[in-house]
Every structure is written in structure tokens, then in C-alpha cells.
């Protein structure tokens, strides 16, 4: 993996938590704030935070269009929480999104009382017990297209999905204690 550079959208939110996991996997990271930061990347991370704020902050440098273009060309992406909302086909309540990942998501769908919680997850493979996900005002996946594969569930809700070179977690693997989701991303690179 030496020499691979992952661009981490760093306008707002918990982008710095991703950097540690990525460097542990031997990847270089670059914070994406301007158009020129987006040249020569091998992969992208869209972190958690506040998707509406990120959309606003992307405007001055045209990052919405630039990242949309890279993802459209097939660049591997790891999206978490707000990042999933940016990547989704449709957002409820309505909000602009890149539309690359064939899912519909509802923002803040677990409501206030679950503002923040750690939940047990069920993994598709390997079927390991004891994997946990940190949920912070998480979105819920309401619909998935046929090319979307579920990699983990919270009860019956899909919370980790993959479509082509995109991996999307509605929880925060970058705030967990192990790097299993980041390792799945590494496999895509
Ligand atoms: N609620 C946030 C949003 O709508 C996502 C929360 C998060 O990323 N932890 O963008």
C-alpha cells in the first residue's frame, strides 16, 4: 500500500479520527479543503459530522462537483454517517446529495433519545459477535438498490453497505476501537 494517498474531506466533523486508522494501515492521508487538494488521490474518505454544513462548506471550492466526478470515475470511497448522507441517491428530508450510492437515507432517524449510543452489530462475514458501532444522530437506510450489498446490521437495519468501490457506514468506525471497516476499505484500494 506504500505510496497510496487517501483524501479525507476535512471541512467539518470528525475527519481527524479517520487519519489514525488509515496511517495504521500504511496509507498516506491528505486533508481535502480546496480543489487543488483533490489531485492525485487513490481513495476518498467522507467523514461524519453535519452533512448540511459540509454541503455549504464545499461550495466555495466546488468540492461537491470535484468529488462527485472522482467517485463517478470509480475512485474507492469510505463514507461514514454524514458522509453516507452526502453519497446517497436520496435524502429525507430532502437535501442535495451526490447520488452515487443507490440508497435512500433518513437523517437523524433514530431520534433524540438515541442521540448517541453504542450498539451491537451483526456482521455478514465473518459472522462475528461482539462487533460494535458508535451511532451519533445516525441516518437510517430506508431503501437499497439491487447492487448494494449489506455487510453489517443493527438489529434489522443495514448499517454497513457496499456498492462497487464504495463502502458506507451509518455509524462511526473511526470512533471504534478496532479498524475492521477501514480494513475493508483497504481491500478496495
Ligand atoms: N445528523 C448528521 C447529518 O444529518 C449526521 C451525524 C453524524 O455524522 N454523526 O448530517
Account of the protein in words:
The structure is a single chain. The chain has 189 residues and is of the alpha/beta class. It has one domain: 3-Layer(aba) Sandwich (Rossmann fold). Helices cover 23% and strands 34% of the residues. It contains 5 helices and 12 strands. A 9-stranded mixed β-sheet has the order 2-1-3-4-12-11-10-7-8. The longest helix has 10 residues. It is globular and about 40 Å long. It starts with a strand and ends with a helix. The mean pLDDT is 94. The chain binds glutamine (GLN).
CATH C-level name? Alpha Beta
Bound molecules: glutamine
The major pleated sheet works out as: 9 strands, mixed
CATH topological fold name: Rossmann fold
CATH superfamily, by name, is Class I glutamine amidotransferase (GATase) domain
What's the rounded overall pLDDT mean? 94
| End-to-end distance | 8 Å
What is the ordering of alpha helices and beta strands? EHEEHHEHEEEEEEEEH
Q: What's the β-strand tally?
A: 12
Q: Give the oligomer, counting copies of the same chain as homo and different chains as hetero.
A: single chain
Q: Low-confidence parts lasting 5 or more residues at pLDDT below 50?
A: none
Give the structural class. Answer: alpha/beta
Helical residue percent band: 10-25%
Q: Please report the number of helical segments.
A: 5
How much of the sequence lies in strands comes to 25-35%
Strand order of the largest sheet: 2-1-3-4-12-11-10-7-8
The coarse silhouette is globular
Radius of gyration: 15 Å
Number of domains: 1
What is the name of the CATH architecture?
A: 3-Layer(aba) Sandwich
Amino acid at each position: 500500500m506504500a505510496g497510496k494517498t487517501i483524501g479525507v474531506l476535512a471541512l467539518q466533523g470528525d475527519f481527524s479520527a479517520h487519519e489514525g486508522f488509515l496511517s495504521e494501515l500504511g496509507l498516506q492521508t491528505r486533508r481535502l479543503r480546496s480543489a487543488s487538494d483533490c489531485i492525485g488521490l487513490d481513495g476518498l474518505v467522507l467523514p461524519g459530522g453535519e452533512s448540511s454544513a459540509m454541503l455549504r462548506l464545499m461550495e466555495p471550492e466546488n468540492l461537491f462537483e470535484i468529488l462527485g466526478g472522482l467517485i463517478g470515475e470509480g475512485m474507492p470511497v469510505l463514507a461514514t454517517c454524514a458522509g453516507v448522507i452526502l453519497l446517497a441517491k436520496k435524502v429525507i428530508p430532502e437535501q442535495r446529495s451526490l447520488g452515487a450510492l443507490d440508497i435512500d437515507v433518513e437523517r437523524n432517524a433514530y431520534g433524540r433519545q438515541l442521540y448517541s449510543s453504542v450498539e451491537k452489530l451483526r456482521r455478514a462475514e465473518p459472522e462475528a459477535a461482539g462487533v460494535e458501532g458508535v451511532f451519533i444522530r445516525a441516518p437510517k437506510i430506508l431503501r437499497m438498490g439491487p447492487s448494494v450489498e449489506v455487510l453489517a446490521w443493527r438489529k434489522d437495519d443495514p448499517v454497513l453497505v457496499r456498492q462497487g468501490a464504495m463502502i458506507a457506514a451509518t455509524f462511526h468506525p473511526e470512533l471504534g476501537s478496532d479498524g475492521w471497516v477501514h480494513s475493508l476499505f483497504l481491500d478496495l484500494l
